[in-house]
Amino acid sequence: MLFRILQTDNNQQYKHFFCIRFHFVHKSALGLKIQNLPCLTHESKKDLDDARKELVTVDSVLGKTVGTLENDVQKTVNIMKNHLVTMKSTIGKIIKKVETDLIVLKKDLKSEVVLNRTPSGIVHCITRAPWYEAERLCRDFEGYLVKIENSSENEWLHSTRKSKSSGYWIGLTDLIEGEWRWSIDQSLATFKTWYSSYGSKGHGSNCVSFVGSYAKWFDTSCKVGYYFICERNFCN
């Protein structure tokens, strides 16, 4: 070992010393040689010990913080799970109620429907509602507001109405002014039988109904509540 002690001019030793070099030679067969290992002062060792204690404290605080965060996250997840379970249960009840209401509505609607059969075997289902509501109800019946393609069908529908003096919606509209199309397939109407001066009443009159006592048509506001005629291949 080689120690070198630094001195002042007045031959007084410094309070601190440094180990300049440790020179070890291992004389075994491995011939391992370790040298130039630094020595620490007391102050440096104390600093390292203090730093180690601080790191231990930081590690402890971080561990507690992570544990707290994990607990908070788990609590939040549990709360969200409970909310989702409650929402699922509530939505399930709402869906079941809507399905029940639809069944009741269809039964009530069917109880008001008058069934008539054309010579071709097509069934017409007749009840009452505004035009857009009537169209939706016809779709619920897997049908559509009736499409009239000739005068004989028009006369037959008019004569088999439940209420002879009431207007009845049919599936004809002109959402583009002057272009009268059938709602079922958007085809242009080739057969039209307007009541006097009707068929061009303007943008506020886009839906078509039987006049009432006559087998003629008139265009009016779609918001008016009339009977209507649904058409499909069969009604249950």
TrEMBL record:
<dbReference type="Pfam" id="PF00059">
    <property type="entry name" value="Lectin_C"/>
</dbReference>
<dbReference type="InterPro" id="IPR050111">
    <property type="entry name" value="C-type_lectin/snaclec_domain"/>
</dbReference>
<keyword id="KW-1015">Disulfide bond</keyword>
<dbReference type="InterPro" id="IPR018378">
    <property type="entry name" value="C-type_lectin_CS"/>
</dbReference>
<feature type="domain" description="C-type lectin">
    <location>
        <begin position="131"/>
        <end position="231"/>
    </location>
</feature>
<dbReference type="InterPro" id="IPR016187">
    <property type="entry name" value="CTDL_fold"/>
</dbReference>
<protein>
    <recommendedName>
        <fullName>C-type lectin domain-containing protein</fullName>
    </recommendedName>
</protein>
<dbReference type="InterPro" id="IPR001304">
    <property type="entry name" value="C-type_lectin-like"/>
</dbReference>
<dbReference type="InterPro" id="IPR016186">
    <property type="entry name" value="C-type_lectin-like/link_sf"/>
</dbReference>
